[in-house]
Amino acid sequence: MTAGPSGPQLVDRIDPAVLAGLWTAVTRAGGAVGFTADTPGPEIRAAAEVAAAEVRAGREHLMQIGPPDAPAGVVFLRRA
Q1: Is the pLDDT confidence value at 57 over 80?
Q2: pLDDT band, residue 7 (cuts 50/70/90)
Q3: Rounded Cα gap, residues 53 and 15, in angstroms
Q4: Computed over its alpha carbons, how large is the radius of gyration of the chain?
Q5: How many CB atoms within 10 Å of residue 38?
Q6: How far is Cα 71 from Cα 7, in angstroms, rounded to an integer?
């Protein structure tokens, strides 16, 4: 038996490649993460780079479920 996802946990950084992989997988499966199914991979990767930089800079907070190298889901929080 394998352990399920851990979390949610507040993290202060995420690898943009990991985030892009998650967003690409969700998008290609028909999920809603802000991209259409035919969005090119490099466009998703660029958006992931921006999101990761916002977290590193402390302008956004990131909650993640699952291990750092393979999150099952993420949510970004920004103070209004």
Answers
A1: yes
A2: low
A3: 10
A4: 13
A5: 7
A6: 9
Among the residues of the chain, which ranges form H helices?
16-28, 41-56
**Cα distance between residue 40 and residue 56, in whole Å:** 25
pTM of the model: 0.86
Report residue 52's pLDDT band, with 50, 70 and 90 as the boundaries.
very high
The burial of 39, by beta-carbon neighbours within 10 Å (0-12 exposed, 13-18 middle, 19 or more buried), is given as middle
Helix axes 41-56, 16-28, angle to 10 degrees: 130
Residue 66 structure tokens: 């699952």
Residues 6+ apart with CB under 8 A from 75: 8, 62, 63
Q: Give the mean model confidence (pLDDT) for residues 7-22.
A: 94
77 token code pair: 């929080």
pLDDT of residue 23 exceeding 90: yes
Residue spans of the domains in the chain: they are 9-77
